[in-house]
Structures are given as C-alpha cells and as structure tokens.
Amino acid sequence: MKTLIKNVNVLLPDGTTPLTNLCIDGDRISHIGEVPDDFRPGHVLDGHDMLATPGFVNAHTHASMTLLRSYADDMELMDWLNKMIWPAEARMNREDIYWGAMLAALEMIQTGTTSFADMYGPWMDAVAEVVSDSGLRGVLSRGLIGVAPDAEEKLAEGVSFYRDFHGMANDRIHVMLSPHAPYTCPPDYMKKVAAAAQKDGIKIHIHMHETKTEINDSLKAYGRRPFAWVSETGLFDGGATVAAHCVHMDDEDIVIMQKYDIRAVHNPGSNMKLASGVAPVPKMLSEGICVALGTDGASSNNNMDMLEEMALSAILHKVDAYDPLAVPALTSVKLATEYGAKALSLADVGRLEVGAKADIVLFSMKGSKWTPRNNLVSLLAYSANSSSVDTVIVDGSILMEHKELKTLDEERILFEAQRSARHLTNA
Ligand SMILES: [Zn+2]
Asked: Fewest beta carbons less than 10 Å away: which of 149, 232, 323, 363?
C-alpha cells in the first residue's frame, strides 16, 4: 500500500517544518519532497492546513489501569496502592485487562500516540491482542512483584510471554521483563530476573527512584540507594534498561545510568499529582542520558495524553530551575518522539525521515489554537491540545483518518470499559 500526504508541513528532526509532500511505501517513509514520477499512491491525503509529526511514544504506562481512572485520587502513594489500587487490581480478570487496554488504545490513537510501553499483568497476551487489533506499536512487559508468593512462576510467565510474542504483528509487538521496583523486588529476585533476561536477550523496564520514601527505605534496608544496589545484581548488565521516574537522583545515580546506558522515562503529570518530586531532566539531558516521556497509568495522571505531558515537561523544569531556557519546545517534542523511541530500542521510529517507519500524526491547524502560525513547534508544545489530532498512521496503516477510527469500535469499547470498571470498584 502506497500513501501520499501532499502539501503538508512536516516536522523534520532538525525542528524545521517545511511545506512539502510525504510518500509512504508499505510500512516506511519513502520520500519527503518532490513526489517521484513513478510513485503511484493507492491513497492520497490532503495535507493542507496540517502539520505532520512523528507519532508520540508513551514510554511508560499501565494501559489497563485506565479502568481505575478517577477511582482513587488525592492520596499518598503507598495508601493509594495498598488501600485502593492493589485490591481493585486483584479483582481483574482477562476481560478487564483487555477492555482496559482497549480503552487506553482508543485514547492513545485519539491523542496522537502511536507507540506505548506497558507494564502490567496478568494476561499480557490480552494486551498483545489489543496491540495487534488496534494497529498500535506496543512494548509490553509482565510486571513482576518479587515479594509475592508466586514470584518465580510470574518470572517464567514473563519469559514465555517474550518467547511467544516478541516481534509479532510485523514487529509492532516487543516484549521486555519488568521487575516492578526495587521496593517490591529484593536483591535475590533481581538476580534471577537479570539471569533470565540476559539468557534470552530481553530488555528491562522498571520503576526507579520515584519517591523520597523509596530512597530512605532502601538506605535503611541495604545501606545503599536503589540504583547502587540494583546495579550490583546484574539487572542493568544487558544495557538499554528503561527506568521510569528517576525523580530523586544524586551524582552517583547518574554515573550508574551512564555506565549501563539506562534510559529515564519522565512522567511529569504523575510525579506532580502524586507529589513525588521533580526529576532532574535538564541535568540528565546535559549528562547525555536518554530521557523519554510517559503518562504513567491513567489512575495517577489521569489521562494518556502525551501533548499534556509535553507541555508539562516544557513548563515544569523552567519554574523548577528558575530558567526559561530549561527544556525548550523542540526538546519537549523530542522527549515525546525521538528520545522515546530510542529509550524503548525501537529502530527507525520517532523521526520523520526517508527510510523511517511511517508512524505519523497529522494535526489540523485550523482554528484559534494554531493561529497565528509564527512557529509550529512552539504551537505544538505550548498551545495545541489533542482535539487537533486529525489522522494517525502506524507502520504505514491508517488507524484514524479525519477523526474517523479505522480499527476500533469506540461505542463498544466505552460500554465494555464502563462495565469492567463497575465490577472492579463496586465489590
Ligand atoms: Zn508506573
């Protein structure tokens, strides 16, 4: 299938936005510029008044937790987990996991996300089904709680999930292993996860240094900060670990991230709402660490809208550093696209250039939020909201065209998600 997007402003990796044409051949961008004479598109999209951007990469979320959106808000993290979230999650069945992830997929497509990294479970095969059916790109992992009585079985389940699903759906499904966090996975368990991951070459996705309490408890239990002791278990030895949060960081933590090429996922909405703190994003970027952007679960955000995270990342660090130059507009866009893809080890994703995967969002620039058009990157980062997401393409396939969903049944998803949420929260 060949698609031509003609007369469209294209956001290029250098931040320029020329008015040009974009050709898609199969799952990749084949040309940007003059349309070759022999390019015969099966489908043509009129790009007039549109900005084409790389699809957003939500590098840390828990998709099925959308079912718990607005169920438990304004609580301490551990109270929130122990009293509300974990008991509701214990009632989840496979249907709930599926419809929760479907609700997330619906919201992601409607808000311009094309790739997401999901840590959840059980029944991650249901989330793989959602990725396959929706057309999205997913980096999925079974969350592992090392202190649970069935921790060993869950690790085996995580490895089988990798063997069964990694590379499926034209390589739109990738699988990682996810020890949940240093405070739920003791050193011996981390060592087992590390050994299992390295045997199969599986990458790691973990929560790190989210709260002050996590750091203090680790100092009490092990006399070390989590990054220090986890690095000694071998968990980071396979490289390219995805570490969500990285809020409370000292110089030694940053040296460990550099040594093991660990990627940080910044979740400003979740960190602000749970009052976790402000991650040192400008410092990590200046130290050469890859920083991506995520929403975290919709029960701590409370949505999956990456444009909001972009705006938050661009604004939060300015006030935190008293520096209006901290995290400029283009950097915030890159956190949500190019750096997200790099963090998740997704090759040829996150940049609009010839040869890259055709994961593209078209924003309609009609209307007040996009007027006047002095600087399209600035409008995207600071002014636009996701109501201007018009068309979404993943792997060359159109998932939404002029707001019409091509792969999902919105009415059914909303109905089933509401029904699932009732049985989780009314017990
Ligand atoms: Zn999380």
From this structure: 149
Architecture of the CATH domain 56-343? Alpha-Beta Barrel (3.20)
Q: What span, in angstroms and rounded, lies between the C-alpha atoms of 176 and 391?
A: 29
CA of 405 to the centre of ligand 1 (A): 28
Spell out the CATH class of 2-54+356-405: mainly beta
Which residues on neighbouring strands pair with residue 401, listed in sequence order? 404
* C-alpha 392 to ligand 1 mean position (Å): 25
- Could you tell me the distance, in angstroms and rounded to a whole number, from the CA of residue 59 to the centre of ligand 1? 10
Q: Judge residue 60's burial from the number of C-beta atoms within 10 Å of its C-beta, 0-12 exposed, 13-18 middle, 19 or more buried.
A: buried
Domain segments of the chain: what residues?
2-54+356-405, 56-343
Cβ–Cβ under 8 Å, residues 229 and 221: no
User: Phi then psi for 74, rounded to 5 degrees?
Assistant: 60, 50
How close is the Cα of 424 to the center of ligand 1, in Å? 20
C-alpha of residue 293 to centroid of ligand 1, in Å: 12
Residue 294 Cα to ligand 1 midpoint, Å, equals 9
What residues does the ion ligand 1 have nearby, CB within 5 Å?
296
| Model pTM above 0.90 | yes
